[in-house]
Amino acid sequence: MCFLRLQEEERLLLYIKGLPQVLLSRVQFLREALLLPALANRDEKVIGGLACLMSEIGQVAPGLIAEASSEAVVLAEALLSCVAFPSEDWEIADSTVQFWCSLASYILSPELEKVNHRKAVEDMFSPVFLALLDDILLRAQVDESTFDDGGGAADIPDSLTHFRTNLEELFVYICQLLGSSSFVQKLFAGRWASTDLPISWKEVEACMFALNMVAKQILQDSHPFDFSLIMQLVTMLSSGPLEELSGFMCFVYRSVADVVGSYSKWISSYPSNIRPLLLFLASGITQPLCACSCSSALRKLCEDASSIIHESSNLEILIWIGEGLDRRLRPLEEDEEVVSAITIILNSVPNREMKKNSLGRLLFSSYVAIEKLIDSDSEHLSRQNPAAHTQALHFASRGLHRMGTVFSHLSVSSSPEDDAILALLGLFWPLLEKLFRSAHMENSNLSIAACRALSQAFQSSGQHFLMLLPKVLDCLSMNFLSFQSHDCFVRTAAVVIEEFGHREEYGPLFISTFERFTSAASITALNSSYICDQEPDLVEAYTTFTSTFVRCCPKEVVAAAGSLLEASFQKAAICCTAMHRGLLCHTCQVS
User: Fold this and answer.
1) Can you tell me the distance from the alpha carbon of 529 to that of 524, in angstroms, rounded to the nearest whole number?
2) CB-CB neighbours of 238 under 10 Å
3) Could you report the per-residue pLDDT of 256-295, keeping only the tens digit for each?
4) Rounded distance, CA 549 to CA 552, Å?
5) String of DSSP letters for 344-380
């Protein structure tokens, strides 16, 4: 009985293995009897069901489809008609994506190369994938009506968003099959590229979307293409009044900016492109919908063309962008991209006076915001005008964030008289010291921003802080004792030890700082795994400081801090059982 059952299971398995071949032989019937009538009647349930069935056949047996039999060709054509079907949602087209990816992957696979069959299969299916590219570009278009021209808000259907997200792999496969040159040529062959016809902006956006998706592949193939059409779009989009840049046009703007960023190395190789690109990105940064893409593209452009952009006229545009940041409060990430871009260019400015003046202009509003906060009475202002106090804290934190970003990208000159960092530090530290010694440090966002700026200043130009070490560590340790929930002070002290721990003459200073941290009530309270679990950030910060102390300080200094390390190891034994991410046991491993 068991033997008979086993035979039946094997027979069923063989039947299932042969099922794709059986179904493939019936595709012609399915297409004519079911699919074509459903397409004519716009019966989306039938179309969707058949699309899923035919896609499954191809995914299970891509090699069968790659044989390019008449049935396989019928299947491919049937699925193309499903992709092109103008449904109100995108689930039908989306359901076929994995079929096309599986087929393309098989055609490009080493197995097909071994049997010297790939060229014939590629030639057979190239027209199919060309037609597919046309269809998915059409289906990936975003309708202009989905945008509110007033505020620029988008209401893109979720199924379209999901479909576009899933297209990256397929676009790359099509690019590999057709070749990057043919792929780009196909994108630029649309009606939008004709000077005799009105521009279809939704077609432009879809093509830019696809071009950005395959950027890595095209750059890898090293076949630069003609960017004149891209530059025409750049000029057209940025030449109009800013008031007209809203709604769907911002969405188009964003896609073009993504392309500029992805191909910045190639597109910036033509010096005549630089100024139009800077003006294009400067305009885009002012619009919320495309600000992120434009900020990122600006940084990439400045990285790739720093030797060209540092000309005074271009530098003026960059500083103008930087000076306008406070008028448009954007996420810190976007702010950082812009400041990074400008600082990268300032690094390459040969005229040191121009560099210092430009830095001053870039950071002027930051200094003003911090000075204004320092001069205010925190308690009085927060009580009398909470909104104004919150705004003052916000602008000061943002200013500190910009300063830190400048420090992280500004290179130290080998010539002391040409060192822009030295001039910057001359203004930075006195201001920061006043801030550290003020009651404003109670605000966690402000203290984090101040510590970040100080850490980045140390990491970029630590040698200039050597004489200031006692003041710096005193500010950090005293602030931690005052505001023990702010572990950023301990983390920043670890950065200081990382930079200067090897200086034995400062050993007593490092030990006294270690002692202050260890004596803090919050650190002393770390006497059970439960408490360690409640304070993971604090444990991690103290761990980092302790391990940095052990790793960077001379052994004589470490030996002199024996009692402090013993206390740390006792806490490590407790915290080893904690579940958080910053276990003090790392200290034991380092020691």
Assistant:
1) 13
2) 20
3) 999 999 999 999 999 999 999 999 999 999 888 899 999 9
4) 6
5) HHHHT-S-HHHHHHHHHHHHHHHHHHHHHHHHS-HHH
